[in-house]
Amino acid sequence: MNANQIATNLRMDYKTVRHHLNVLVKNHMLIPVGEGYGAMYFVSPELEQNYDEFTKVWEKLRHEYSPSSG
Length: 70
Fold this sequence. Notes:
This protein is mainly alpha-helical. The protein has one domain. It has 4 helices and 2 strands; from the N terminus they run ααββαα. Strands 1-2 form a two-stranded antiparallel sheet. Helix 1 (about 5-10) crosses helix 2 (about 15-25). It is flat and about 40 Å long.
């Protein structure tokens, strides 16, 4: 999807989505294909290669930052 499609699907502001996409590209998690407004975003080869490690970190963060029940 391009940034506009992502923003529409997530019901988020386009500029906010663009900011986060830029952060993910800068950190080698996504790669843009194409240029400008129509650029499509895909998972990067680096993230694909390290996906198991990524999910471990994600789960750890999810548990640390989720609201405690009680």
